[in-house]
Amino acid sequence: MTRTYIAPNFQGTLFRNPPMSETAKLILDGKEYELPVVVGSENEKAIDITKLRDITGYVTLDSGYKNTGATKSNITFLDGETGILWYRGYPIEQIAEYATFLEVAYLLIYGELPTEKELNYFTSSIRNHTLVHEDMKRFYEAYPTGAHPMGVLSSMIASMSTFYPESLNPNRPFKDIELTMHRLMAKMPTLAAQAHKVSIGHPIMYPKNSYSYTENFLHMMFALPTFDYEVDPVVDDALNKLLILHADHEQNCSTSTVRMVGSSQSNLYSSISAGIAALWGPLHGGANQAVIEMLERIKADGGDVAKWVAKAKDKNDSFRLMGFGHRVYKNFDPRAKIIKKACDDVLNKLGIHDPVLDIAKQLEEVALKDEYFVERKLYPNVDFYSGIIYRAIGIPTEMFTVMFALGRLPGWIAQWKEMIEQGEPIGRPRQIYTGANLRDYVPLAKRG
Ligand code: CMC
Fold first, then answer.
1. Catalytic: 314?
2. Does the CB atom of residue 381 touch ligand 1 within 6 A?
3. Which pTM was predicted?
């Protein structure tokens, strides 16, 4: 297939070609094979097995893709051993301290920090697209009261493809695809806030385009036709930081889902909708909701933290400490470090004393000293604290994962764009079949 997709302004670092001397030797059935080694710009190494099945007849088996590099990517670098996270080479600590969420979104999607002119163009385009088609409001009438906003958001984003049928072909000139990206960035906060309003039986608030991205979202969430919500700069800052910290995280479950769905040449709206569905699970983005529910449960049970730590360690008990552990961070989660501080700041500035936070602090203290957690390198992750901030700024628990999705959106868009630009093949893993051998069909009457 010929791809006509052209990305302007893309200046990401190119991958180094592997030094010719670096190969891996594999001995199978007495025969030796040489496989190329790919070296990334931070010296991470991979054995390139793209031809493995052709030359050996073998595939690799890696449940959960714990050791599988699914792509070459120049968007985000993270080192789980040392707790490093960079967006396009910029450390998360600097980005979270100094940037705005839209600047970060631009950086992720276009590859470089924007100039003032570029940022103005991006911001005003997003401002101009915040309204959602009025016909979409009718969908809300069909959802039951109390519908989980993640289910609603995922469906509404998938439905956007029906309102913009020109988006169905992902191989169009960049200007057209760019419009889809801007529409998504602009309309997702509107749809997210609408999902919340509908779930609590309140009237939908229209966007106010004189507001910044984050102010506008807070306005749509909390204002009413009878009540003007005044945005507290402390709340606005905290939200900006939270969105930035969630903006990308290389090849995790939802991002890989976005790339996988997109690899079949499905459109960007459906790819993002699938990403939202993948994020929803409590082992991924849904953990922020699960953390607060867990802390509430511990509180209601009398606050005996040691008892719950023991439950998490008990292999016969399915309970896990939500907000602890990470597939790649085995030292600390750099996002959790930043968020922990932001959490203290927000609670102090807003003068909130949250008993759930006291339980969180006790839990952290006990778990960090416990041999089980130390041995397995289980540390608090980003979701351990994010829920406490969301709660402090008035976001209802069921919306927490929606907040994660809002933050992750530019990362998903950037990853989808990169996948298209790199002309990646359709994602289609292999398997090792462990079922029955060939047998003859037995008619129903003879099956006993
Ligand atoms: N509580 C108790 N034990 C745990 C926990 C936990 N939260 N996490 C891992 N373990 C144990 C697990 O039982 C296993 O023990 P053993 O070796 O004795 O069998 C060992 O630690 C390794 O766990 P794993 O499940 O093989 O690790 P994984 O890399 O497959 O899973 C994880 C990573 C994040 C899914 C897992 O740590 C977990 O379920 N954490 C709680 C959910 C959570 O907070 N998720 C949010 C992740 S951060 C947001 C995001 O980026 O998605």
1. no
2. yes
3. 0.91
